[in-house]
Design brief:
50% helix; 12 helices; alpha+beta; 382 residues; 6-stranded mixed barrel; ABC-4/HrtB_transporter; 10 strands
């Protein structure tokens, strides 16, 4: 009976309910886009670190896990590699430079990463081969660089680096392509650590070392479950270092927490607006049909049926609106340029959809309570 009553009213006023479903659809589009944008911006900031084949990261002490400020010399790297309980450890150096695009005029900003081949930090490849020589003039690029610079395995890639007061250009052969490895909102390219020190931007073009100072050390443990104990062990064994897990490292990046908090606040306000809009609409609907509700109660219809019809009506309209919003979001995403960092993950989409489906019943609680308080005689003017 409740289903019949709710569907009957929706069908008799289908234009009104369809327009309101469109309002819910617009709210759904905003929520889903905010969720996708939050995930995309977070991924652009942490993608490389999140995919590291390591359990811990070692930084210079007092730098608050900042790869920009941290400086670790080669001796610390060797001492850490000799500690018990570590399966392997690899130094990683970060810098920024530019890739010259095929037209020879435009450039692409990239994260230039130095690693030791075969050690933690060195990326796996899906096309070509991994870094194997520390001295060869070769480079591994992520798929975004491969697409934008239009290079394949075996092609030459020109990088532009400011050394001293001059812009210098170096040609490196692409030996492998890895998946997305963005860091600090830029796609990443990987070379051996000595080559990284040779080609990275620096104040003195002649400054070069086969054992360069690096920014962090990626550590893979024999027992990943002992991260807390091993962090304390490394900090006690090596002077002036601080150790943390991967997640804490990228969440400590400058601007990461503020960015995510801003987007989460936007989502919260959007949900609040959704609750108020849905609540206001169904309250008006209930006030307009007080005589009909009074008639139903006068002929003996129990409160459970009246409440059930109202709840089902709210659920049907909300589900239809969220469905339309999901389709609209999918269509808009297909037309978005690749430069817009929107990523939809299963978890973020499920959380957003479930939250959207809940705001309907939550917003309609007032109208349900109003319907239950209707007195038959008063509603009929008797």
């Amino acid at each position: 009976m409740s289903i019949y009553l709710s569907l009957k009213e929706i069908w008799r006023n289908k234009g009104r309910f369809f327009l309101f479903s469109m309002v819910i659809a617009l709210i759904a589009v905003l929520v889903l886009f905010t969720a996708g944008l939050g995930e995309g911006l977070a991924s652009a900031n942490k993608e490389y670190l999140e995919k590291l084949d390591a359990d811990l990261l070692v930084f210079q002490g007092g730098t608050n896990y900042s790869t920009i400020e941290s400086r670790l010399d080669y001796q610390k790297v060797k001492r850490i590699q000799r500690l018990d309980g570590l399966e392997d450890a690899g130094p990683i150096g970060f810098s920024n430079l530019k890739v010259v695009l095929p037209d020879g005029l435009e450039t692409l900003d990239i994260s230039f990463v130095g690693v030791n081949p075969g050690e933690p930090g060195s990326p796996p490849v899906f096309d070509g081969q991994s870094l194997s020589s520390r001295q060869a003039k070769v480079i591994v690029v992520d798929q975004r660089i491969a697409e934008q610079a239009q290079v394949n395995v075996g092609d030459m890639l020109t990088i532009k680096s400011t050394q001293g007061t001059d812009d210098k250009f170096f040609d490196l052969r692409v030996v492998g392509i890895t998946d997305g490895r963005q860091y600090f909102f830029q796609p990443s390219a990987f070379v051996s650590l000595p080559n990284w020190d040779r080609y990275r931007p620096k104040a003195d073009a002649g400054e070069y070392s086969s054992r360069p100072i690096t920014n962090t050390i990626a550590v893979r443990l024999e027992n990943p479950a002992a991260m807390t104990a091993m962090s304390a062990y490394i900090e006690n064994s090596i002077v002036d270092v601080e150790v943390t897990d991967i997640r804490t490292a990228y969440e400590s990046a400058p601007g990461y927490a503020a960015q995510q908090n801003t987007l989460n606040t936007m989502k919260g306000f959007t949900f609040l607006i959704g609750v108020l809009v849905i609540g206001g609409f169904f309250q008006i609907q209930t006030l307009q049909k007080v005589p009909q509700i009074g008639m139903l109660k006068a002929v003996g219809t129990p409160d459970q049926i009246v409440a059930g019809a109202s709840i089902l009506q709210i659920i049907f309209v909300t589900v239809f609106g969220v469905f339309l919003g999901g389709l609209a979001t999918f269509g808009l995403t297909l037309g978005m340029p690749s430069s817009v960092p929107i990523i939809f993950t299963g978890t973020s989409v499920i959380v957003a959809v479930v939250s959207l489906l809940l705001i309907g019943p939550i917003g309609g609680m007032v109208s349900i309570r109003l319907a239950l308080k209707v007195e038959p005689l008063t509603a009929l003017g008797m």
